Amino acid sequence: xxxxxxxxxxxxxxxxxxxxxxxxxxxxxxxxxxxxxxxxxxxxxxxxxxxxxxxxxxxxxxxxxxxxxxxxxxxxxxxxxxxxxxxxxxxxxxxxxxxxxxxxxxxxxxxxx
Length: 113
Known about the structure:
- The protein is an alpha+beta fold.
- The chain has one helix at residues 6-24, and strands at 27-29, 39-46, 49-56, 62-67, 76-78, 84-85, 92-97, 102-107.
- A hairpin with a 5-residue loop joins strand 5 (76-78) and strand 6 (84-85).
- The chain is globular, with a radius of gyration of 15 Å.
- The N and C termini lie far apart (56 Å).
- The model has no long low-confidence stretch (mean pLDDT 89).
């Protein structure tokens, strides 16, 4: 037996994972975060788009900087949130995390030649 709401949330989570599966299997890339942070991050690329996955493993809120060389100045859209992040100096950006929060960022493919 599942508590009320758990079954519905489980269905939403499974749908999200299925939608993200192609990206999660994409080519792995580097993301640099401070060594003493509670946030772990990595990137993937798929069809020219860049995806960043970041997870706060702490029960405390935090704000951290990221360095993503592959970002190359592209604006990030935060998946399932109504906001975008413009990088500073082409490869750096900062974001805030609530306890145990996950952010998935998407940068579109770079413009063609």
